[in-house]
Design a protein that fits this description.
This protein is mainly alpha-helical. The protein contains eight helices and two strands.
Length: about 210
């Protein structure tokens, strides 16, 4: 299946999630996504699992109480209704479906291919004066820079604390900020130059 079709399917899915009001349909969609996750390497799915779980938990709890409908449970000022339970379930499943469907998409489709597909889809807008080509060229270059920035930060940090027995958390934070901010500034100001220099240093170290 081409990246363009996958993007179209995901876009339709994301749009339909805000239209569907039946919790059973949301549950079926979630089950299908969970089944799809079993066919993807776990390391591609586990990223951000804790913050995603906390966000889903917050979404569920924040929509659960103080809704109109048939009262199910009362504990002091807290009132739980059937409408609140359904609403909280729908919104939580919606978040789950959007996030993990996106994980399935990114795990099965290289980001480079997705950018190329988006570039083709939005290509006609170039005639209206929008710099579509320049935007996606800059985006692709930025994505290439991220691994190099991570490698640069790791190497500089290791060299900075080498020979030091104990470094406090505050000192570590100051140390990281001292070389991280200039590096990000350099990569944003002239990404092509930064990318070329980082690649050359990577080849030299190898």
């Amino acid at each position: 299946m081409s990246p363009g079709i996958k993007l179209l399917i995901y876009s339709c899915l994301a749009g339909s999630l805000f239209i569907i009001k039946d919790v059973n349909i949301h549950a079926v969609i979630s089950i299908c996504i969970i089944i799809s996750l079993f066919f993807i390497p776990f390391k591609k799915v586990k990223g951000g699992f804790l913050p995603i779980t906390l966000f889903m938990l917050f979404t569920f709890i924040s929509n659960l109480f103080y809704q109109s409908g048939r009262v199910i449970y009362i504990a002091g000022p807290v009132t739980l209704t059937d409408e609140g339970l359904v609403l909280a379930s729908i919104r939580t499943l919606r978040v789950f479906d959007m996030i993990f469907a996106a994980k399935v998409l990114t795990a099965t489709t290289p980001l480079k291919d997705m950018l190329e597909s988006l570039k083709k889809i939005l290509g006609p807008l170039e005639k209206t004066g929008l710099p579509v080509h320049d935007f996606f060229a800059a985006t692709a270059l930025t994505l290439k820079c991220f691994p190099l920035i991570k490698q640069e930060l790791s190497e500089v940090y290791k060299n900075s604390i080498k020979g030091t027995e104990s470094v406090s958390f505050r000192d570590r934070t100051r140390l990281i900020a001292s070389f991280m901010i200039p590096m990000f500034t350099e990569s944003i100001r002239d990404p092509e130059k930064f990318f070329i220099q980082a690649e050359e240093r990577s080849r030299t170290d190898a």
